[in-house]
Design goal:
The chain has 197 residues and is of the alpha/beta class. The protein is built from 8 helices and 6 strands. The strands form 2 sheets. A 3-stranded parallel beta sheet has the order 2-1-3. A 3-stranded antiparallel beta sheet has the order 4-6-5. Helix 1 crosses helix 2. The N and C termini lie far apart (57 Å).
Length: 197
């Protein structure tokens, strides 16, 4: 049970006592932040049930133990501009990394159902790999690839042994460093989804 006198002091802004200062600056609240991953269309009901029933129950239970419960799901978190620029995977990886670094326990939950899901192209392919692939594909495939990927020579080379700080995206999630071919926005490529489905 909460101390009503202590709460009243805090609400009045009276921080003169040690007990008030200790309560205001305490760091014993923990966070359980988990990323929910699945195909969207065939797990819609399950995700809705999680949001409407399971998460509120877990939040109430967590509150009793000074643990904040947060569910991260990307159904509404990917803007059309990001999707058009093929950043969905990168954004999801960033959110998963955040959940891993901020959560005291569980940080990822996966729901598998009947649908296989969308398998996106990488948004960036290192120059050497792309050019080696171009030698192996048919002329018609080569035309499609050269119209959808453009060389970016401005990307900086980042040594793989470089350390990253907590909360920063590890190099392996950021895509290749150095010159690479970049997948162009879907809206700039005529019939993009028809070509690659």
């Amino acid at each position: 049970p909460r101390d009503s006198e202590l709460d009243a002091k805090i609400l009045r802004g009276d921080t003169s006592g040690r007990d008030v200062l200790a309560e205001v600056t305490r760091k014993d609240v923990r966070s359980l932040r988990f990323f929910v991953d699945s195909t969207f269309t065939d797990t819609n009901e399950e995700r809705n049930l999680l949001l409407a029933d399971v998460v509120p129950f877990l939040q109430m239970a967590g509150h009793k133990h000074k643990c904040e419960i947060q569910m991260v799901e990307m159904r509404w978190g990917i803007r059309s501009e990001a999707s058009d620029s093929h950043l969905t995977s990168e954004i999801c990886m960033r959110e998963m990394q955040r959940c891993t670094s901020e959560s005291v326990g569980l940080s990822y939950a996966f729901f598998a159902a009947q649908k296989y899901g969308y398998r996106p192209f990488p948004s960036k392919i290192p120059r050497e790999i792309f050019e080696a692939l171009m030698e192996l594909v048919k002329d018609t495939e080569r035309e499609v690839l050269t119209s959808t990927f453009k060389l970016d020579v401005n990307a900086l080379e980042v040594p793989m042994e470089a350390e990253h700080t907590k909360g920063q995206i590890p190099p392996e999630f950021s895509g290749p460093s150095g010159p690479c071919y970049v997948l162009q926005p879907a809206s700039t490529i005529e019939g993009f989804w028809g070509k690659f489905e």
